[in-house]
Amino acid sequence: MSLKNSLKIVLLLFVFTAKMSFAQTEKIAEVSLKSPYNTIFTHLYFLQDDSYFPAKSAQAIQGNISLVEKEKIAIKIKKVLDGRGLYIEMGLLPINNNYIDSTLAQNVYILSSKEPLIYLEKIDTSWYYSQTTILNIDKLYKDVYPFWITFIDKIISNKVSDTSFLGIRIWQYVAMIILVAISFLLYYLVRIVSFFCINNLLLPKFQDQLPNKDILFKIAKALGLVVTFFFIGKVLPSLQIPLKFSVVLILANQILLIFFIAFFMSKLFKLIMYYLGKAADKTDTKLDNQLLPIVENIVNFIIYFTAIIFVLKELDVNVTALLAGLSVGGLALALASKDTVQNVIGSLNIFLDRPFEIGDYISVSGAEGEVEEVGLRATRIRTLDQAVAYIPNGVLSNMTIDNYGLRVYRRWTTSFGIDYNTSPDLISFFVEESRKIINAKDFTLSDKTMVYFNNLGASTLDIYVSVFFDVASFRDDLNSKQVILLEILQMAKDNKIEFAFPTQTVYRK
To answer: CA 333 to CA 16: how far, in whole Å?
Structure first.
């Protein structure tokens, strides 16, 4: 998603939610601190524009400090809640004076899980903002409103008109337009600078290895989006937009920021995987090349799954309960699909043990051929008749595998049957000449060659042959046999040595 489209979404949310600006309909006349509901309502109600009485709101702050300090603390707490976009649903607040937090087992109430340092505690019979909240409010306020935002806020709010339209002041509209303009400029600036740094400073020695610079551009673009939306999230609180709109706008910005961070990490990891692939090309094994795409898919899944978890947290979904449910469901799914799990584990065993590589000629029960692919679930083998055999990795990892690709030498044994009319001298000549033909080849091991007349067959004189080939592939193996057989046949023909075939003699009386 581009910056332009993202900002369009944000602006549409702005216009839509502006029509639903905050309107406080409930009225109370007196301060009440008898429950979390009453304390929070007192605090927030008396800081609204149409009911602005900071002294009454400050009654929610307990401690031996002056009323002026209590007022400042109460205002800061509200500004932090507004700046963080933490909308308080009044209808969900407990009205029980003796409310107990089920997790902490204490008389405390946390306003939002997104900001656990802001919470109420019961003192005697009344509810107040906790001492922890009071001690940390200055730090929380500075985190939401840095000094430069506070400075701009003072200038704008004091110098421009308070005229409003649809519940939003004119200066806030102007500030939004300025923010959008600055965001566009920041995006393009970060994208250009980051692309320059990556291209000219970080990876100058590896430029010739890249097929194109598109991946670098995508990384720079993703980084520009991350920085831009982080900046928007920091500036938004200073605009002091009505809370109901601020909640939607800040939430949309946070969700987009999370996914842009995931997008940036995914593209950065893709670049890392590209160079790992180059390193894998230099290794002796080809399984590394097969493993890298699987690793890339797994890492991308983890990145985006984590992003979804963070988004769910922003939406106030109980992620712990959700993960617990997924764990139970995952266990049930694993039990229902144990074969799939077994295949995944089998593939990991293959990658770790490396019983064969891509291109090796292997023989397993029911299949024999060249390994073409080792996937996450099954291994693909191209058989001699060019059919494709898929063997589940869970089964393959438990089978006996004959890997002909790992053989140092290829052994060939055969037998020549010559005619019974052949003389002993010609038999010896045939044996010696056959041995010479075999040992003359540079792809045979002469010290291991065996050619002997070893059997009187039913219709042939059998010559036993055992040869070791120093060749790499099955095709070279076949070619070597062909060369030797043709030369032996020619030698036999030149010396009128005939090969026998089964015959039968019938005698008649």
So the answer is: 42
- How far is the C-alpha of 406 from the C-alpha of 424, rounded, in Å? 41
Give, in degrees to the nearest 5, the angle at Cα 94 between 90 and 100: 145
CA distance linking residue 458 with residue 273, whole number of Å: 65
What does the alpha-carbon distance between residue 464 and residue 455 come to, in Å, rounded to a whole number?
Answer: 8
Q: Report in angstroms the alpha-carbon separations of 150 from 146, 239, 240, 252.
A: 6, 10, 11, 23
Alpha-carbon span 30 to 270, nearest angstrom: 61
- From the CB of residue 155, how many other CB atoms can be counted at a distance below 10 Å? 10
pLDDT value of residue 26: 43
Which parts of the chain register pLDDT below 50? 18-28
pLDDT at 413: 92
- Helix H, strand E, coil C: the string for 465-495 is EEEEECCCCHHHHHHHHHHHHHHHHHHHHHC
Contacts of 264 (CB under 8 A, 6+ apart): 219, 222, 223, 225, 226
pLDDT at 18: 47
From 189, 196, 77, 183, select the one nearest 128 (Cα to Cα). 77
Are 390 and 361 in contact, with CB atoms under 8 Å apart? no
End-to-end CA distance of the chain: 100
Phi first, then psi: give them for residue 129, nearest 5 degrees.
-65, 140
3-class DSSP state of 213: coil
Residue 47, judged by CB atoms within 10 A of its CB (0-12, 13-18, 19+), counts as buried
Q: How far apart are CA 145 and CA 122, in angstroms?
A: 29
With contact defined as beta carbons under 8 Å apart, do 272 and 112 qualify?
Answer: no
Sheet holding 410-418, edge to edge: 410-418, 461-469, 450-456
CB 412 within 8 A of CB 376: no
Give the pLDDT of residue 508: 67
Please, which residues bridge with residue 391 across strands?
Answer: 379
Q: Where are the alpha helices (DSSP H) in 337-453?
A: 338-353, 393-396, 424-439
Distance CA 305, CA 299 (A): 10
Single-letter residue type at 304? Y
Residues belonging to the chain: 509
Q: Provide the pLDDT for residue 260.
A: 92
Q: Are 197 and 203 a contacting pair, CB within 8 Å?
A: no
CA torsion through residues 181, 182, 187, 191, sign: positive
